[in-house]
């Protein structure tokens, strides 16, 4: 954007902020009973317009601050829904400049939405916070907590597929952090809830596969028992490439045969590309065959 246009918008926004502030102060005067509410409403509108101008000028912190001012006035006017919307707008603006402040605004909006019984919207904003912790602040433990809270709210509203998406994130991260019992419990839970659904049952094999790999890292015998259990619960799993791979890996592990293990993985990868998570888990299992030697899968 043209710098002069951005500068002009920013100047207009600053003027509007000052004007809004005057309105707020005037609303506290002795005429408050007559005009106070109107003045606050006008100030709300000015703060929102200023916020949008700051957005055009790409001054994200100023935009976030202006939306926050509008949100606080909406609370004063008992307009909860408008307040929550402004806090979300503030959070989205701050995301580009101050991730922690974005989280604070989104948490405030969540408090308002849960108070209003709007749990599905609250869950959506918990996911946004989790994503900020994942990518901006790199605090995986906190990301997990927000995905779990989102899943809880979705379950309460019977949005099971949305809940499962959040729990998959939690399970994946739990395994990366070596919290295997938690990861196993969640992968099994999701596998069990999807295996009877005609539209989702093809995914169930992936969840049981991941649960079995987590078992395998902890203990080979556990993995064998889990595999038997999954085949019994979900007979279609037996014919899957994932189940066949697990059996080959268990055999290679039992024989401490590193080459057979690598070969089985390579063969699987040539048809279904392994993602980063699976590669990490398979390497962890391979290290238990090799002792402490660093290994590669290919």
From TrEMBL:
Pfam families on file: SNAP
Gene: LOC100565548
SUPFAM superfamilies (alphabetical): TPR-like
Example of a GO biological process term: regulation of synaptic vesicle priming
Organism whose genome encodes this protein: Anolis carolinensis
Keywords: ER-Golgi transport, Membrane, Protein transport, Transport
Annotated Gene Ontology cellular component terms: synapse; synaptobrevin 2-SNAP-25-syntaxin-1a complex
Highest taxon above the source species: Eukaryota
Protein name per its UniProtKB record: NSF attachment protein beta
